[in-house]
Specification:
9 strands; alpha/beta; 10 helices; nine-stranded mixed β-sheet; Esterase-like; hydrolase activity; Rossmann fold; acyltransferase activity, transferring groups other than amino-acyl groups; globular; Mycobacterial_A85_antigen
């Protein structure tokens, strides 16, 4: 298979331009109760598979319809183990791989060798499509909530659908890149016991990150995502308030919701789950590893003391993950961490998927 190179998160120049354009979008400001309404529950908006596409012997694409996605269909790609059958008497553990900003369900198979990596493993790989700016969250929508409700859709609709009709078991691990790294850790913290292990590759683990030296801030990625999705970025979590959108320290707007969706803010709830964090410093000097090489050496994890300047997105990711790493250590929450020289691109993410793969498989008994 030929794998294309590219970004699953935002390219640095494009993200800066999109962030600037996002500021031109109309403002949606509303102060409402902080609880999500009962209408977001999966029982009220069930998902169903409307089409199956067998891509090859192992790859099955499912077209899923749900009112909670704000789309006619969203796809879920499955990589299936040997001897899998919908009629089997057994189930298989699952590895969920979450895409990044501007990504979709095809990203992992298009940009990595995940098919080969999992070929001899007795597990189902689940690669769901959300949107390029989903935040893996139920959207605020100016306080109205409603669709899209991505967390409800994935965890309360797609997950039980796979367990009911596609022989997915209840032992699960989750990993993601960029926005997907935020989603993987957010889901793990918010739903204790749902996932047996979690990995974040260049994860946007602090959406409220404030660059100390004028670089890319956390909210900039959300604003850029709104342009990528052709929507108002404020629909996702509202506005972050001070110090990003106002000079008034008392004006926090919907910052409570940004914190609700921040792995950094919920680091304590990650305790008890095997964790893997990898991130670069934004300095591009080559990956030093390619598919087919021996498993990545621990020598790659050089723990850079400061960020570089080549990749503005990974520069911000570096700051976010340094904060999360410090907080986990302060709380006594164990995590395997690899901080290295590198940028926000697929060769690094594939390397770290391979490096973390034994931990993820061990957690689900595959």
């Amino acid at each position: 298979m030929v794998h294309r190179a590219g970004h699953g998160g935002f390219g640095a120049r494009a993200a800066r331009a999109l962030a600037a354009l996002a500021l031109l979008l109309p403002v949606v400001v509303a102060q409402t109760a902080r609880a999500e309404p009962a209408e977001a529950r999966a029982a009220d908006h069930p998902a169903r598979v409307v089409k199956e596409v067998r891509v090859d012997d192992r790859t099955l694409d499912l077209a899923v319809s749900s009112p909670d996605t704000e789309a006619l269909i969203k796809w879920v790609r499955l990589l299936l183990p040997e001897h899998w059958s919908k009629d089997a008497s057994r189930t298989w553990p699952t590895l969920w791989l979450l895409h990044g900003g501007t990504g979709n369900h095809l990203d992992w198979t298009a940009n990595t060798h995940v098919e080969e990596l999992t070929a001899d493993r007795d597990a189902i790989v689940v690669m769901p499509e959300t949107s390029g700016c989903s935040g893996y969250s139920n959207w605020y929508n100016g306080g109205k909530w409603g669709a899209p409700a991505w967390e409800t859709y994935l965890l309360d609709q797609v997950r039980p659908l796979l367990e009911r009709d596609y022989r997915a078991g209840t032992r699960r691990a989750v990993a993601g890149l960029s926005m997907g790294g935020q989603g993987a850790l957010k889901f793990t913290a918010a739903h204790p016991g749902l996932f047996s292990a979690a990995a974040s590759y260049s994860g946007a683990v602090n959406p409220l990150y404030r660059s100390p030296d004028g670089g890319f801030n956390g909210p900039d990625a959300v604003k850029a995502g709104g342009i990528a999705c052709l929507t108002d970025w404020r629909r996702v979590w509202g506005e972050p308030g001070y110090p990003f959108d106002t000079d008034d320290p008392a004006d926090l707007r919907q910052q409570w919701l940004w914190k609700r969706n921040s792995p950094l803010e919920h680091a304590a709830e990650l305790a008890g789950t095997p964790l893997y964090l990898s991130y670069g410093n934004g300095a591009e000097k080559g990956v030093g590893w390619k598919w087919g090489d021996p498993r990545p050496s621990a020598a790659r994890c050089t723990n850079p003391a400061a960020h570089g300047t080549d990749d503005q997105i990974e520069r911000a990711v570096f700051g976010m993950n340094q904060q999360l790493r410090a907080k986990l250590a302060q709380l006594g929450v164990p995590a395997t961490v690899c901080a290295s020289t590198g940028g926000h691109t697929w060769p690094y993410w594939e390397r770290e998927l391979v490096a973390s793969f034994p931990m993820l498989m061990k957690a689900i008994g595959a």
